[in-house]
Each structure stands twice: as structure tokens, then as C-alpha cells.
Design a protein that fits this description.
4 strands; alpha+beta; 5 helices
Length: 129
Amino acid sequence: MKGLKTGGRDFPKGKSANPGGLPRTSPQIKALAQYTREILREKLYAVHLLTEDELNARMKDTKTPGSEKAIISILIHAIKYGDQNRFGALLERVLGKVKDEVEHSFQRPTIIIRPNGDKVIMGVEEDGE
């Protein structure tokens, strides 16, 4: 096969190595992007304590708004299939991303200043000593 040689594999010129492209975003996650945090929070709080049967009944009801149906659809999918990605996307949209807090601690070097003003860095000073 003629073409560009990359890592021991030949790819034909003009043909994609990934013809399927990126994975598709689920329609429920696309629907989430259209709503503001306040609307989503209001809708999620309205349905988060319902049972699976009650959620299914709301989905079948023609009077249920589309925004609520999008949230219910994600909740049902999470319950049935353990879909953490959709549920995580919903929670991040409603609550915001959780920030990880990391504590940084550095050992400080000992700096000796000579009478002529030169600085000499000596070893590392342990905390509390």
C-alpha cells in the first residue's frame, strides 16, 4: 500500500484513519446546553424525588414541557443503564464543576547573607525546626 508511512503503518493518501470521526453527543446532552442553570435547577428539583414509574408517566404525558422531559430522560437512562456521563453532564450544568483543592507545601532553603551582601543557599530547612 502506497502512502504516508507513520509508525510502521501505511495510510492511503486522501483517506482518513478515523472515518467515523468523533463520537456523537447524545441528544439529551445537546438539549441541556440550551437551558440556563436556573431553569435546569428548577426542573431537576421538581423531578429528583420521583420514582422510576412516576418519571415514566411524566415522559408519556403530553403536557410535560420539553425541558423537563430532557431531564427525566437523563434520569431514567441513569437509573436503567447506570449512565454516569449523561447524569454527570446534567449535574455539572446545574451545580457547576466541582473544583479540586490541592495543598502545596514546599521546603524552604536556608539563605545565609554574608557581610559583603552575597547570598549563599544552604540545604533545606525542615518545617518546625
